[in-house]
Amino acid sequence: VQLQACGGGLVQPGGSLRLSCAVSANIFSFNKMGWYRQAPGKQRELVADITAGGPSHDGITTYADSVKGRFTVSRDVARNTVDLQMNSLKPEDTAVYYCYADQLYIGRKYAYWGRGTQVTVSS
Asked: Mean pLDDT, to the nearest integer, of 76-104?
């Protein structure tokens, strides 16, 4: 399984960015997909994730308290992507963002990570 992230960049405070992560397997083969971030000198933390759901129902989302109401995670079945729409960005959102996906198989979890993409929020 491969994950390919894109969409990072430099944005001013209050601006928006959209991250997208293409996954090399069918969305419904995954348990959860989402985004983590790591700022300099800090541990990697969960930003948001979404369960795969099914053909007739959406996945269940989880958000870090610091991004609730500003970020939206979604998965696109047709494009095989997991996306992160980031609005009202703050300087403290500056970090390397990593997309993530995991699969459950015979009682074990297999985790996959994409390469990070830099998001910088600065005036």
From this structure: 95
At 10-38, the pLDDT tens digits run 999 999 999 999 999 888 899 999 999 99
Residue 66 has pLDDT above 80, yes or no: yes
Contact 103, 29 (CB under 8 A): yes
CA distance 37 to 104: 23
Cα dihedral 123/87/19/77 (nearest 10): -170
3-state secondary structure 4-47: EEECCEEECCCCCEEEEEEECCCHHHCCEEEEEEECCCCCCEEE
* Amino acid at position 43, single letter: Q
What is the C-alpha separation between 47 and 70, in angstroms, rounded? 11
* Nearest residue to 45 (alpha-carbon basis) of 71, 10, 18: 71
Max CA distance (Å), the chain: 49
Using DSSP bridges, classify how beta strands 45-51 and 61-63 pair: parallel, antiparallel or unpaired.
antiparallel
